UniProtKB/TrEMBL annotation:
It comes from the Bacteria. Pfam families: RHH_8. Gene3D superfamilies: Met repressor-like (1.10.1220.10). GO terms for biological process: regulation of DNA-templated transcription. This is Putative transcriptional regulator, CopG/Arc/MetJ family. It comes from Polaromonas naphthalenivorans (strain CJ2).
Amino acid sequence: MPPKTASHAAALKPADEKITINLGYVDLGQIDLLVQEGFYANRTDLIRTAIRNQLTTHSEVVRQVVARKTLVLGIQHFSAADLRAVQASGEALQIRVLGLATIALDVTPELALAAIDSVVVLGALHASPAVKAALAGRIR
């Protein structure tokens, strides 16, 4: 088996989601000061660290809610074969993810409607625009 290349590894890891925040000038200035003094590599490094610290502080609450709401924590991918198997079983999926849920690009809107009953994603849902449009009434 050939070794994995950097581009192959990058293809396996989903890209981070971008968010936008508004900060006051004083807060932004303090961030820039900490970056300038070498505490953080850049603004993003400080913001990621602050977010991770808050998530660590509240990790027990997150764990309890994930269990109570029966959410899958992490990344969950649904291929066309997965959805055809669900459809053949006569069942329907209730997708519940905290993280990233992906529906393969070869999944048709008709297959998605036949196999997926509901979608709850706290994080990001990646699917074709046609599949997202077809499931719009089932996404909560």
